[in-house]
Design a protein that fits this description.
6 helices; 2 domains; two-stranded antiparallel sheet; 266 residues; alpha+beta
C-alpha cells in the first residue's frame, strides 16, 4: 500500500479543505464580477432606452445647438454655457434623464432665451462646437418653432386684453425690456400691463417679424386677432414664457434636426 504524503494535500492535513475554500472564493468572485458587469450593462441600456423614450419629449436646446444626435455626441456636459448665460435660461439635465443627465437645455415656460447676450455668449463658451461657432447673430438660430397649441385659450382670438403682470407676482423669470435697459434683463413680475388687446407674444418677440397678430379669416371687422408665426421664428420661447393664459395658448415645438446653420426647419 502506498502512503499518502501530507504535502500532496497542500502541505498539511487540512490542505485539501483550504484548496476547496480557495476555489469557492474564486467562484464567488467570478459570480460577483458577472453580477456587477450585468448591472453596468443594464444601466447603460436603460440610459439608452431613456434617451430613445425621451426623444418623444425633446428638450429645447441652447442657441446654436447642432442636430440632436450630433449635439449629444459633441456635448461634454461641462456646463460652460450655463455659467455664462446672463439670465440663467440654460439648465442641466437631471439624473433621471439617462444619457441626458448633465446635458444643457431650456425650459421656456420657466425662463426663455431672450437673447440678452445676442445669442453669442453660450456659443463662444462651448469648447467642443456642440453649439455651432458658425452662429454669430440671433436670427441664424434654429431652436424650434412657436405653435398656437390652444387657440381657444388665446386672449387675442377672443378679442380680450390683459391687465396686470404677465405671469403673476411670484414668477421668477426675467426679460430684456430694451426701452428700460438694453443689456440687463428685468423681472417680469415687476412689469404690469394694461392692454386693450393682448399682444404679449408679439410685443416681446426678440426676432423682428417672427410673429404677428392678424385678423381671423372672415372676421376682419371685429377686434379679434390670431397670432401668426412666420418662418423667421427661431423658437426662443419668449412667447411661451410671456403667454398669460392657463392652459397656455402658444408653445415652442422643439426641433431635433435642421438646427445647424444652412439647415431647414424640420
Amino acid at each position: 500500500m502506498t502512503d499518502v504524503n501530507d504535502s500532496d494535500n497542500g502541505g498539511t492535513p487540512n490542505g485539501g479543505a483550504k484548496r476547496s475554500r480557495r476555489v469557492d472564493e474564486e467562484r464567488r468572485r467570478f459570480l460577483r464580477s458577472i453580477g456587477v458587469g450585468g448591472a453596468v450593462t443594464c444601466a447603460a441600456l436603460a440610459g439608452l432606452l431613456q434617451h430613445r423614450v425621451s426623444s418623444a419629449q425633446a428638450r429645447l436646446r441652447p442657441p446654436g445647438s447642432l442636430d440632436e444626435e450630433a449635439f449629444l455626441a459633441a456635448c461634454i456636459k461641462c456646463g460652460q454655457c450655463v455659467q455664462v448665460c446672463p439670465i440663467r435660461a440654460i439648465r442641466l439635465g437631471d439624473l433621471d434623464e439617462g444619457i441626458g443627465n448633465g446635458v444643457p437645455h431650456i425650459v421656456a415656460r420657466d425662463q426663455a432665451c431672450d437673447f440678452s447676450c445676442d445669442a453669442t455668449q453660450c456659443i463662444l463658451a462651448c469648447p467642443t462646437g456642440a453649439l455651432s461657432h458658425l452662429i454669430d447673430k440671433k436670427e441664424q438660430v434654429k431652436m424650434g418653432v412657436a405653435k398656437l397649441v390652444e387657440p381657444d385659450a388665446c386672449l387675442a382670438r377672443q378679442g380680450k386684453g390683459w391687465k396686470g403682470t404677465a405671469r403673476g407676482p411670484a414668477f421668477p423669470g426675467v426679460l430684456r425690456y430694451a426701452e428700460v435697459d438694453r443689456w440687463k434683463a428685468q423681472p417680469v413680475a415687476e412689469r404690469p400691463y394694461d392692454l386693450a388687446l393682448c399682444d404679449l407674444c408679439v410685443r416681446h418677440c426678440p426676432i423682428e417679424g417672427a410673429i404677428a397678430l392678424e385678423a381671423l379669416p372672415g372676421d376682419a371687422g371685429s377686434a379679434r386677432r390670431t397670432p401668426v408665426v412666420a418662418k423667421s421664428c427661431v423658437g426662443c420661447g419668449v412667447c411661451e414664457m410671456m403667454c398669460p393664459t392657463a392652459p397656455i395658448a402658444i408653445r415652442v415645438e422643439v426641433m431635433t434636426t435642421g438646427r445647424e446653420p444652412g439647415g431647414t426647419h424640420a
